[in-house]
């Protein structure tokens, strides 16, 4: 028999309500003792006084009873919606402990939900990540996962693999010459397109940041990167000065643009430097460039393009070409209040989907509004439309499925049908791992360990 677990499900601190959640065989009994009420009607909210074992009043709270199996965990669940604050919830929790419950481990409610078949693993993972993500678009993608999109996708893939298997198994008894070649071609092309789709999902998922996008400002010294950062934040966060090399450390701040969480990173201007401190700053700039999903490449519109600018263009091009999923690049021409001296033709070398954006970073409100809409537009193009594999174990499972399909295809070409069937069975096992892993303990422990208490 599973023991009864209890936890405070709301964050600590001062707030209107504090929820203490119980799950397990003794949950209803413990609630009866604390409230001195014989029973609760399932799914009804009951206003009730709560008492400790000495009979002293603890709180007046709403009690909710979810009878097994129709509850989050699939077991009997009681929720006490107490008054908020640090003390009350903790006292109610202590009472539950005295009456036989034990403190829940991180993610244990959801683990029980999984073990009792209320959720598949993809859904449980979506819950874990939804609680912690800071990016609203990613959260929406996770919600789709919670509603079962990923599970449905896994079923589709399984159905295709099973159909390929069924077709070839009837052929195993045929002699080679009797196998209809068009069937082989059809199965082959179906599997190839399945593998391509899996690969797209894999690449898309790997490239998507779960904690929001990171945007880096890159350019030679004095083009106005720090002024631009200040404009985007609408306050003076970074020191700006006409002296080159002022920014030596990396400065980071968060911004919400539309539904996207964007981490802004201002970096030291990139150029050849003998100053060891500045060189360290430049190293950090290069690191920020590697991490960024959006790169603002800043130029000074009031001076001609020089070798330093060209070196930066080459650097950004190189970075973009090295990635499987290239970053969004926005060329920015700053200091447009001054006479134009920059030949913008060279900026076309930057592999950017948008034209260069002209700004005057000293005019903060206008710069912020121009850039907010440019960034929002760039981010809208990459909203989460497809299935997303948010956990590393899911990405690993899909990569393995793909590899098994490729091996199976090779065996199909050489008409080694038994080996083909063997690899397809491996592919089936790998894809099933996303929702129902067979060696589950390890995956479960690592996944549910990420949860917060009370979930
Ligand atoms: P960074 O080294 O690239 O971070 O450049 P800063 O933001 O420190 O700016 C260098 C100098 O250019 C400072 O004196 C700024 O006031 C000035 N500056 C920045 N943006 C503009 C602009 O749009 N117009 C003009 N006229 N000056 C600017």
From TrEMBL:
The record's subcellular locations are: Cytoplasm
Q: What's one GO MF term for it?
A: GTPase activity
Q: What class of enzyme is it?
A: hydrolase
Q: Where does Mg(2+) bind?
A: 226, 247
Q: For K(+), which residues are the binding ones?
A: 222, 241, 243, 246
Instruction: Quote the EC number.
Output: 3.6.-.-
Q: How is the cofactor bound?
A: Binds 1 potassium ion per subunit.
Q: Give the domain of life.
A: Bacteria
Q: Which residues bind (6S)-5-formyl-5,6,7,8-tetrahydrofolate?
A: 21, 79, 118, 455
Q: Where is the TrmE-type G domain?
A: 212-380
**Names of the cofactor(s):** K(+)
Task: State a single Pfam family of this protein.
Answer: TrmE_N
Q: Which residues bind GTP?
A: 222-227, 241-247, 266-269
Name the UniProt key words of this record, in alphabetical order.
Cytoplasm, GTP-binding, Hydrolase, Magnesium, Metal-binding, Nucleotide-binding, Potassium, tRNA processing
Any one GO CC term of the record: cytosol
**Xref: CDD domains:** trmE, TrmE_N
What the entry lists under HAMAP family is as follows: GTPase_MnmE (MF_00379)
- Similarity remark: Belongs to the TRAFAC class TrmE-Era-EngA-EngB-Septin-like GTPase superfamily. TrmE GTPase family.
In UniProt terms, what function does this protein have? Answer: Exhibits a very high intrinsic GTPase hydrolysis rate. Involved in the addition of a carboxymethylaminomethyl (cmnm) group at the wobble position (U34) of certain tRNAs, forming tRNA-cmnm(5)s(2)U34.
SUBUNIT field = Homodimer. Heterotetramer of two MnmE and two MnmG subunits.
The protein depicted here goes by the name tRNA modification GTPase MnmE
The organism is Helicobacter canis NCTC 12740
